[in-house]
Every structure is written in C-alpha cells, then in structure tokens.
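Question thread 4412

I'm putting together a teaching handout and wanted feedback from people who do this every day. The idea is simple: show students a protein as raw sequence, then show them the structure tokens that encode its fold, then repeat with a second protein so they can compare. Below is the first pair exactly as I plan to print it.
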Amino acid sequence: MTSGRPLALVVEDSADQSDLLRRYLDREGFDVFAAVDAESAIAAFPTITPVVAVIDLLLPGISGEECARLVQERYPDCFLIVSSVLDVADYPDADAALPKPIVGADLRRLLREVPR
C-alpha cells in the first residue's frame, strides 16, 4: 500500500462483518487488507505490514486463535484485536477484545490505543 495510511488486517469469513469493519477502519484512517480465512491472511504475510489486526476467532480451516498467534509472531508490534460471538472469557490473549455484534464506537475506542 502506498497511500501513506497505516494498514489494518481483517480476517473475517462473514462478508457483511468484513465490509462493516472495512468501512469503520477506513473512516478511522486505515487502509484495509481483508482476508476471508486464516490461510489467505498467512499467504499475504510477505506483502503486508499491518499495524492493527482484527481477527474473527471462528474461521473455517485454520482457527482464528491460531491465526492470531501467527500474526503475533510475524508482527510483534501489531495491535491485535480478536472478535467473536463467543464469551469474552474464552478469547485468547490479545491486545483487545471486540465482541460481536461489532459496534463502531467500540472499535473506535480500541483504535485510540494503536500507535500510528
């Protein structure tokens, strides 16, 4: 991405949720790389450098929890937000939790913590 805007990685298998996150993140000043599954996100690792990642925990194939772990390994400075319909108590370790349904104000609040 050459826009000069920071990059957000979204890993979400629901098209509606992905579009919603893309709109919210764009409004907050981020370019967005959206992947429909963990495998697509991992395949893009050589070409992206996200400053924030929003990862759905319930993904087909490689789990969102495993994807989150791989993002943390590859991009240790990336602000990791996990999202799910699951109980927040069941979320893996991350910088922040974003329970579904996603609310724009909640995401904006979390994004204030992202270094740009």
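The second pair follows. I'd like the answer to focus on this one:
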Amino acid sequence: MTDQPNNGAISNEEEAPQFSLQRIYVRDLSFEAPKSPAIFRQEWTPSVSLDLNTRQKQLENDFYEVVLTLSVEVKNGEEIAFIAEVQQAGIFLIKGLDASSMSHTLGAFCPNILFPYARETIDSLVVRGSFPALMLAPVNFDALYAQELQRMQESGETPTPTVQ
C-alpha cells in the first residue's frame, strides 16, 4: 500500500477548530437610583462613567463560560443619579485552537459577541428606572485585548491569560 497525499484533509489526530455559541444569559443584574424621586426634578446634566471587565472559566471538556461585566455610574452634577450593572454571560464550545488563538477568542472575540446584549440590558434597566435612554458606544475588545497583552509583556507577566 502506498502513502496517499492528504490533499488538505484533516487527519483524525488533528481536529478542525470549532467555535459554537451554546447559550447567552444574564448572570447578575442590579440597578440603584439612590436620589430618586428628587433627582427627577433637577435639570438633567449627566456624566457617565463606564467600567468593564471580562473573566473566563473552563467548564467541562471544551466548554467555556465568558462573563462580561458592565458597570455604569451616572452622576447629575455631583450627585449619583443611578448605578447599573450587568454580568452578561455566554457558554461557548471552543476546540482545536492553539493557546494564543484560544486566549484571543476568550479575551476579545467572545466579549464582542456578549457586548450588544449587555448594552441592551443596561439601556432597558435605565429606561425602566425612568431615566433617559443610555446607548453605550461600541467597545473595541480586540484593541483592549492587545493593550492588556502589551501591559502584561512589559510587566513581565505571562502574555497569555489563563482560564480559570
């Protein structure tokens, strides 16, 4: 028997990369308007502060949970008008990626998928609190991921974040 060329087919030992979104859900949600109802009678001159964070956790086998946390604090003058926070999560099936690609997928690609859901949830909370709609600007998670890698390299940390 002669050896046949592979012709680009993937052998059984080598798995084709796979990515599949399994579920998107709200993991945690909070809204606080400490100065209501008095805040509604004031002139509305808001200043918005946004804090975002991501974390990843390997579940079983090739399943990963990625959680994107958005925390928004809006002040009207010096007073806090409201604080809204959402932990938007997703379960992803990811397999066949090298360490660098896996790190990028979990650190940038998955948060890019979750962000529109988190943004809509924050907007809905704010409107239900009787405040003007709050449409957060898009976030470039690829740029944030690259900045974090650079920061880690400069500080001597391992450049590929580990999955918990």
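Top answer:
Good format. For the second protein you could add a caption like this: Strands lie at 18-32, 46-58, 63-76, 79-95. The mean pLDDT is 89.
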